[in-house]
Design goal:
five-stranded antiparallel sheet, globular, single chain, 8 helices
Length: 199
């Protein structure tokens, strides 16, 4: 399994995103404090940065990202929004959105078979969920320290997006509908990615 091993805080600063998007609220970096003084970027560089931003946030590499773009182009509607919708539906992203793990941990935990979809174990991070799917922590995994601290009075507060619901005590969540563009909480100009691939 290919992994993105780039330092999170450093990469977030370079891409202009908050580490909270990756599930880390206290990570900071003091590297290159004057990077805001850089010269104006070219049109290509701006488009490439938006693509790199999505690849980094969702943890996908170039070949897989290109496949998602091809899928988005074949669907009806706006290609950029279709692309975001596909990435949001990835199982590892859903696990993160349900508050079960950080983005990077979510991919590893899914890969190790800690989650089920509709009662069946799924260990493919890129699995695309659909409305009606129930994602849950496997019974055999619930007693582990990582998951046991997610229940009870001391469990961290999690705000889930409107397209899913979370049952804290049952350690499961349900997909209510397809994600929409308004459900994306970080800033991204997806039309620039469409322009980049259109060249």
């Amino acid at each position: 399994m290919a992994k993105n091993r780039q330092p999170i805080a450093k990469r977030c600063k370079a891409l202009g995103i908050s580490p909270a998007v990756m599930g880390y609220s206290k990570k900071t970096t003091i590297r290159n404090p004057g990077n805001g003084m850089r010269r104006k970027q070219s049109e290509y560089a701006t488009q490439l940065k938006e693509k790199q931003k999505l690849k980094f946030i969702y943890g996908v590499l170039e070949h897989q990202f290109a496949s998602y773009f091809d899928m988005a182009e074949r669907q009806t509607g706006m290609t950029g929004e279709n692309l975001l919708r596909l990435l949001e539906r990835r199982l590892d992203n859903v696990v993160f959105r349900l508050g079960f793990a950080s983005r990077r941990d979510a991919r590893q935990l899914v890969n190790h078979g800690h989650f089920t979809v509709n009662g069946k174990k799924v260990n493919i991070p890129s699995y695309l969920v659909k409305p009606g799917d129930v994602i849950a922590v496997r019974e055999a995994s619930r007693s582990s320290v990582k998951f046991s601290k997610l229940t009870g009075a001391d469990a961290p507060l999690v705000t889930t997006p409107e397209w899913m619901e979370r049952n804290k005590e049952a350690l499961e969540g349900k997909i209510l509908r397809m994600p929409e563009r308004s459900d994306i909480e970080f800033e991204v100009e997806e039309h620039l990615i469409v322009e980049l691939y259109s060249k």
